[in-house]
Amino acid sequence: VQLAWPQGSANARNDCVATYVDQRTLLTLAECVLPTSPTSVRTKDRYRSESFEIADVVAHPKYSPGSSRNNIAVIKLKSRVEVVPACPWLLPTLPDRVDYTGIGRMNLQNFLGDTQDPSSESIPSFAMPAVTTQPWQLCGNFLANLAARNQSVPEFTEDEHLCFGDEQWQVPDGCSLLKGAPVMRYIVRSGGFVKYLFGLSLAGKFCGLGLPSVAVAIAPHADWLRSVILNPASSALQAGSTKGSSPLIFINPDLKRSDECTDGRGSLGICVPHEECTSTREQLGSGGRVTLCTNGSIICCAWGDIARGQPSQPVNPVQVELDSCEERYQAVREERFLGLQESEDDYGNLASVAEIGWVMSGGKISFPCSGFLITLRTIVTTARCAESNGRKPTVARIGSVGAGQRTNYLLPPIRKVTVHDDYDETNGLHNIALITLAEPITATPFVFPSCLWKNQTHLPAGAILLSLWDNEPRITTHSVHPMYYSECRERLEDSELLDGQICMLRAAPETKFIVSTPCFTTGSIIMWENTTANPEIIDAQHLVALHSHGDCRENDDVLLTIRVSDYYDWIVSNIK
After folding, report:
1. Are 399 and 495 in a shared domain?
2. GO terms for biological process (predicted)?
């Protein structure tokens, strides 16, 4: 983003930018914010231009004007911005290739395959050529040559600066220096692409093309950045964590079950399922660091806290059925995979999605909302859905969404509806209900139960919301992700986040223009697929949440959802 000053400000600059490292914090060069600090940042892209007010600017305390050492600053905004930030790279080694951001003529930056308007040829645009990470000796030799020609040379040092460059030259005006611009790259982590920030552009004429360029390294300033950006007393809660505490949850994707580890208290331990660790609740409520292994259902537990020899609890058949969901219906999912190879139309339906129906006047059945089949006889939905017509629903339609001509979906009658005893229709508190079918269904490749997400430490970072389409067996899918509790409370302002609720946001890709924002019906399913390495089976789906209510005027409006794992015990106790 560009830095902006009020009109007429002394020492205002138009050659400085900053980079988001979280939704409220940016990094730039100290020389860009001194002696006169900017008052706002301005984002400018293909689809929109917005400005955001700055709350605070903190330059490195050891920076001296005109010096290249400690040339880094932190900018904090007054409000959060819905962007995908870059993660600061704090390791000493860098990848071989990076993207070096500069500025050049728009007609030379045709990365998206657009046909540029001839009138835009001279308009400046961001450029991001890929360049090679070079040993510091290359930049050192170049600087020494400049000094030998009696040219002024800044005091760059190997311990604070990075060197980038390629031998190939560029066309004139293709890419020029932009102070504070990010040097970054997308790197695969935990099955996804993560944007990492390695440095801030400082010197060099052509973005490293033909002549080397120098950037301020992020890693050497890690301790100072932590002291400015992180506030231990008010650490934001990890998305989906227990609301009453403030743990700093660290997910280590390299740790697997049974691996040795060190927990947040510095004790040696091993990665075990969270229910086998007697200190799980204590760690989550302590406000300290909690280390999760791989996907979060496995926690790093000190050796002395691992449950051993505990008296066995009475076996609850409902709990056994729910907890063994993936294994119980594995054969059906394998059969479904084979069917998909023959006919995607017939086997491409949503096998566990149930539409909740009421018989209307004239005998027509209306299906205004949805639920999720979790046992052969039980559907989970919201209380608002179950009571949406002023009377109990009478029939469910299961497996019809996305059904083909030969898909054997079901229309079983409903026997009973169980609404949470403390449900409050005015504010949506405990907005959950169970629907019991008249008879258990028979699991087939077309219709079978899916699983419940029962992890109470966190939610999946990404999930899919399924929204019914105008009372028809059609849906639209939307990527959503959970919000931090602190951010959610801030966004809700005067509204209260109630027990059992979690805030979510629709995904907003950086390069995608959102034309319209749909409204979601109560009971819309939010699910996650447990992707495995087995290519010959349909991955198990888990119900993470149910959409309760929320505005839909803008794409970044908060969605209030019912967190299913909070009601796991209630669900178990109310299934007969």
Report:
1. no
2. proteolysis
* Among 258, 259, 260, 261, CA closest to 250: 261
Q: What is the mean pLDDT of residues 252-258?
A: 78
Q: What distances in angstroms separate CA 364 from CA 233, 357, 359, 361, 407, one per listed residue? A: 58, 10, 6, 7, 22
Is position 572 within any domain? no
Position 345 pLDDT exceeds 80: yes
d(CA 135, CA 27): 24
Please state the pTM of the whole predicted model. 0.69
Let me know whether 465 and 415 are in one domain: no
Listed in sequence order, the DSSP H helices in 198-316 are: 222-229, 280-285
Question: What is the C-alpha to C-alpha distance for residues 22 and 87, in angstroms, rounded to an integer?
Answer: 8
In the predicted model, what is the mean pLDDT of the chain?
Answer: 82
170 shares a domain with 27: yes
pLDDT digits (tens, 9 = 90+) for 430-442: 999 999 999 999 9
Signed CA dihedral, 198, 200, 203, 206: sign only: positive
Note the pLDDT of residue 374: 96
Confidence band of 375 (pLDDT split at 50, 70, 90)? very high
Peptide bond into 212 cis (omega under 30): no
Give how many domains the chain has, as a whole number.
Answer: 4
Residue-range definition of the domain harbouring residue 382:
318-437
d(CA 243, CA 117): 52
Helix or strand run (H / E) with residue 59: strand 49-59
Q: Is 559 helix (H, G, I), strand (E, B) or coil?
A: strand
